[in-house]
Design goal:
Distance between the termini: 15 Å
Number of domains: 1
Number of helices: 6
Length: 221
């Protein structure tokens, strides 16, 4: 009886942890992306006027990125734990690998942008006129808008495929994941706000899991 109670408790805690972590990641990433889009021009060749007016806002957004990244990694880890023996090795590798690549690109872009802000604070009149500033700006732009976005697309496609094969989330959310990944892949060239489809999709998954856990908890009690 005690073993059954322990297993039931684990069954409830594991998806709940994934749901909470996913919601935290989604909310934080939308806030971060909103702060950065409103503060930093999308054009990587811009001359750096945003550093004078928005450096503190950018610094705040950059400091939130590690928290969002940890929440995302927790979300992915708990999802894999929930899948358990149902997890396919091939898709699991792509699913987990693309998640790590997305975080790596996100953190690398944040590190480059943070270096720009810190350097500007110590040399405000010299940085923007140097080739180093434009190089660092282009590196951060490419890391975020090319590599991180492509990794996010692969993550959404592989996660949707795993969901269809295992049924751990409804099929309509998985199919929506394919559609949103395509939107992210194509629309990112035309609008910088396309990136928000990733946190929106993770938020949908998290809310479904949380509602499912609450319903299961009521039935179990």
């Amino acid at each position: 009886m005690r073993q059954q109670t322990t297993l039931t408790g684990h069954r409830l805690r594991t998806p709940r942890a994934a749901a909470i972590a996913g919601i935290v990641f989604s909310v934080l990433l939308v806030i971060i992306f909103g702060l950065l889009r409103l503060s930093v021009p999308a054009d990587p060749s811009e001359q750096g006027a945003w550093l004078n007016r928005s450096s503190h806002t950018v610094a705040l957004a950059l400091n939130l990125i590690p928290i969002a990244g940890i929440a995302f990694l927790w979300f992915v880890g708990v999802l894999r734990d929930r899948l358990g023996a149902l997890e396919d090795r091939f898709f699991a590798t792509v699913f987990f690998g693309s998640a790590l690549l997305f975080l790596a690109m996100l953190f690398a872009a944040a590190a480059v942008a943070g270096a720009i802000v810190l350097t500007f604070a110590s040399q405000p009149n010299e940085l923007v006129s140097t080739a180093t500033f434009h190089f660092a700006r282009a590196v951060a732009y490419n890391l975020m808008n090319v590599y991180a976005i492509k990794s996010a697309c692969v993550f959404m496609i592989s996660a949707s495929t795993v969901a269809i094969h295992t049924g751990f989330i409804p099929r309509w959310i998985a199919l929506l994941g394919y559609s949103l990944a395509l939107v992210l892949l194509l629309a990112s060239y035309y609008t910088s706000w396309a990136f928000v489809v990733l946190p929106i999709w993770v938020f949908l998954i998290s809310m479904h899991i949380l509602i499912d856990v609450m319903c299961y908890s009521k039935r179990a009690s």
